Amino acid sequence: MNKKAIIIITIAVVAIASVTAASIIIFGPKAASPSTTTSSSGISIDQATTAAQTYLGKMGYPDLGIATMQEYSNMYYAQIVEQNNETGAFELSVNKTTGVVTPMQGPTMMWDTKYGVTESGIMGYLTSSGAANGMMGSGGMMTWLRGTPTTNMAISMQQAKTIAQQYLDANLTGTTVGQITTYYGYYTMQVLKDGKPVGMMGIYGTTGQVTYYTWMGTYMQQKVFG
User: Which residues pair with 171 in a beta bridge?
Assistant: First the structure.
C-alpha cells in the first residue's frame, strides 16, 4: 500500500471517529434557557399515554406502569416505574405526529443496568415478548454495560441532587431541582423555575455525570398517574 492510500485511509478513520464521538454527546456546555408554552400539535397527551400503555402491554412486564407523561415541543416523555416499589424502570418517548413509542435517548440507553442492556445486546426490552433479543442481536456489542441491577449507587440521591443544583446554578440561573426518581443506575430530576416544571435532567449513579434533556424541546404540560 502506497503512502497516498495510507493517508486517505487515515483521514477516513479520523472522520468516522469524529462523527461517532459527536453522536454520543448528550448536552452542550450550557443548556438552553427553559421556557413554557400553551400551544400543542399532533396527537394528544391522552393518545400518547394510550400508546405508551400499549407498548408496555406488549413487553410482558405486568408490574410496570406510567408515573408521568410529559409533553414537550419535540416529543412526549414517559417515566416508567415498577408499580410495586415505585423504582424507575426506564424512560420512553412518543412521537407527537405518529404516536410511535421508542426508548428515550440518554440515560435509559447509557446507564440503565436492569432494563437498558441485556445479556444479548442493547435494549432487550424492546421485543414484544420481553425476551432478551435486543437491537444488536445475540452476542451483540456493549453487553458489558449492563452491570448489576441496583439502586444502591456510589452517588447517593442527596449527592446527585447537590450535583444537579450546581449544574443548574452554573447553566440555568433561577432553576431548581424538583421531583427525583431513582432508576437502576441513575437518577432523573424534574427541573423547576418559579416552582413550575421546565425540563428534565439525569445524573449517573456511578460518576455523577450530568445529562440535561435538551433534545425534548420546550416543556408544555404533564399528567401524573398513581
Answer: none
Q: List the helix and strand counts (H, then E) for the chain.
A: 4, 11
Q: Whole-angstrom Cα distance, residue 191 to residue 32? A: 13
* 147-204 pLDDT, tens digit each: 689 999 999 999 999 999 999 999 999 999 999 999 999 999 999 999 999 999 999 9
Read off the pTM.
Answer: 0.74
- Of residues 30 and 133, more confidently modeled: 30
Angle, alpha carbons 153-191-87 (nearest 5°): 40
Q: Of the candidates 153, 13, 38, which has an alpha carbon nearest to the alpha carbon of residue 88? A: 153
Distance between CA atoms of residues 175 and 34, nearest Å:
9
**C-alpha distances in Å from residue 181, one per residue of 67, 80, 190, 203:** 10, 10, 9, 10
CA distance 40 to 106: 24
Averaged confidence pLDDT in the chain: 78
Cell of 64: 410496570
Q: Which residues pair with 211 in a beta bridge?
A: 202
